[in-house]
Amino acid sequence: MPAFPRKVPDSLVEIADPIIEILGELVPAADAERARSALSRMDVLSVRALGLEVVLPPHPPACDISVLMPPRDVPEFARVGHDVLVSLAMSASASDSTWWELDTSVPSIPVGAFIRSNKSVALSVVRSAAAREPALARAVGTLEDMIAPYWHGHGRLIGFFPGREPSPVAAALLPDLDREAFSIIHALSSGTTIAVNPDSELIMHLAKHLNGSAIAVAADAEGRTAVSWEASFWEREQAMAEGKWTPVLQSGPVWGDATHSLSALLAVQGIHTFDALPTIRLLSGIDHIKIGPSGRVKAYVGAHILMPGHR
């Protein structure tokens, strides 16, 4: 597992660095430096989770980062020049949380924010926050039209990247509570610009071994849309703690060129406690695997910081 410090570190960099080291060539040096710069201003105990999103071969390596924040908290890297994102986070329910994402694989480092909520009102909150920027509002409107028939259930995630180029992007995650992801993907594909192939061998492999999945839908201000598929365990923290991803990520033909990256992903798994704060646990490992159009595969890895009273 990553060599995390024994004492609670001064910033998230000291949590990210051991993971980056293990991931090796999956994290380009420039992406790592941009990630360190953003995380250096963040206290470890101010977040609930840290994520690194890496692209698996044969596609070119890239790494973006994300942090899960408590309700209505705004990370240091988004406090200046990101008014529409701050508005979104502050408008969320006190029972919600926010995933803040940074495209550290891009020199301009676009920032995004996504409300994680069990309430259907989250969609209207996103619509209201986006209304001040016409291009962003168009992206949200297109997204809303796509997801409206499926916007129900728990664990929903929705938000936007106002500064994505060449156009603002809105996105949502639809949890597959009824095990109907593949039929929904087929239904969405007819009106979507690009979509994942739900019949691929890798998707069949992951669906066989994992009990959780979701559909990721994105739309930009020009009306372009995309549909991807995510695979996970419903109990993600338990999966990290118990090494449940090990049989899923066994080398084999189904992984193609990504086979040589699997050992690095598995090496991130582990449980860590800090010397002076034994009640705080750090669970590290794979959160989920995302397969997008053209078969592009991303692995989301990182660390969940568990404190008493938090889940």
List keywords for this structure.
single chain, 311 residues, alpha+beta, 10-stranded antiparallel barrel, 12 strands, 27% strand, globular
Summarize this entry quickly.
Strands 1-2-3-4-5-6-8-9-11-12 form a 10-stranded antiparallel beta barrel, surrounded by 8 helices. The chain is built from 9 helices and 12 strands. It has helices spanning 13-23, 29-39, 83-91, 122-130, 134-147, 181-189, 201-209, 236-242, 262-267; strands at 49-55, 63-69, 97-102, 111-117, 156-161, 169-175, 194-195, 212-220, 225-232, 270-273, 281-291, 297-306.
Structure, explained:
The protein is an alpha+beta fold and 311 residues long. 27% of the residues lie in helices and 27% in strands. It has 9 helices and 12 strands. A 10-stranded antiparallel beta barrel has the order 1-2-3-4-5-6-8-9-11-12, surrounded by 8 helices. Helix 4 packs antiparallel against helix 5. The longest helix has 14 residues. It is globular and about 50 Å long. The two termini are 22 Å apart. 43% of the residues are buried.
What's the arrangement of secondary structure elements?
Elements: H1 13-23, H2 29-39, E1 49-55, E2 63-69, H3 83-91, E3 97-102, E4 111-117, H4 122-130, H5 134-147, E5 156-161, E6 169-175, H6 181-189, E7 194-195, H7 201-209, E8 212-220, E9 225-232, H8 236-242, H9 262-267, E10 270-273, E11 281-291, E12 297-306
Parallel strand pairs: 7-9
Antiparallel strand pairs: 1-2, 1-12, 2-3, 3-4, 4-5, 5-6, 6-8, 8-9, 9-11, 10-11, 11-12
